[in-house]
């Protein structure tokens, strides 16, 4: 089937038909479905909006993050994006030219920061840095973008900061943060 493209001001959306095998059910039934994945191709710089992007090289292709399969026959059929590197002549930012839509990538996510052993120490270092550099007060309002399960914000709460808020696009991870007492909104922080 042909790819369908929809043009927007700063990117193109292409529908990529992919045949994907899915294992489901308590007995591991195997069935195959056609799933359409979207891919964004950026025509403007993601940082400054300039349209002077120079192609700098092709680095192969990679499957969408957060999509895994232990079975090789399934893994090789996962949707892949080209990894093309572009350079903005205006702001000198290197960037990828394609990506999956953020909602497709981050609506459900499997990684949570609390599983990183050094995260508590890192949270304490962040607090100390903000105190010394900006004079952060315990009455300050602390917002963390892409806050995951709230592990960093938990360090702030444990240090006596009562006004914290996490912004996390993955609905399941934001819910996990809230169940652990960290106020978190399941949304993207965008313009």
Q: Could you walk me through the main structural features you see in this protein, from its secondary elements to its overall organization?
A:
The protein has five helices and ten strands. The chain has a four-stranded antiparallel sheet, with no helix packed on it. It starts with a strand and ends in a 6-residue tail after the last strand. The N terminus is likely disordered.
Secondary structural class:
alpha+beta
Strands, total number: 10
Question: What fraction of the residues are assigned to beta strands by DSSP?
Answer: 35-45%
Low-confidence parts, pLDDT < 50 over ≥5 residues? 1-8, 11-36
- Number of helical regions: 5
Mean pLDDT over the full residue set: 78
Rg, Cα atoms, Å: 20 Å
**Gap between N and C termini:** 35 Å
Multimeric status of the protein: single chain
The major pleated sheet works out as: 4 strands, antiparallel
Major beta sheet, strand line-up = 1-2-3-7
The helix/strand order is EEEEHEEEHHEHEHE
Shape designation: globular
Brief summary of the model shown:
With 191 residues, the protein is an alpha+beta fold. 22% of the residues lie in helices and 36% in strands.
Which descriptors would you attach to this protein?
single chain, 191 residues, alpha+beta, 4-stranded antiparallel beta sheet, 3-stranded antiparallel beta sheet, 22% helix
């Amino acid at each position: 089937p042909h790819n369908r493209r929809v043009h927007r001001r700063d990117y193109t959306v292409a529908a990529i038909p992919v045949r994907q095998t899915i294992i489901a059910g308590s007995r591991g039934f195997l069935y195959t479905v056609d799933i359409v994945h979207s891919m964004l191709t950026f025509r403007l710089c993601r940082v400054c909006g300039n349209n002077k992007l120079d192609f700098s090289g092709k680095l192969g292709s990679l499957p969408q993050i957060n999509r895994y399969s232990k079975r090789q026959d399934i893994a090789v059929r996962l949707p892949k994006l080209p990894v093309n590197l572009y350079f903005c002549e205006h702001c000198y930012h290197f960037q990828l030219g394609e990506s999956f839509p953020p909602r497709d990538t981050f609506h459900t996510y499997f990684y949570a920061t609390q599983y990183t052993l050094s995260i508590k120490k890192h949270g304490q270092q962040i607090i100390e840095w903000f105190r010394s550099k900006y004079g952060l007060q315990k009455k300050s309002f602390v917002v963390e973008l892409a806050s995951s399960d709230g592990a960093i914000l938990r360090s702030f709460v444990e240090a006596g900061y009562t006004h914290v808020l996490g912004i996390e696009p993955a609905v399941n991870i934001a819910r996990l943060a809230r169940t652990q007492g960290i106020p978190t909104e399941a949304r993207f922080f965008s313009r």
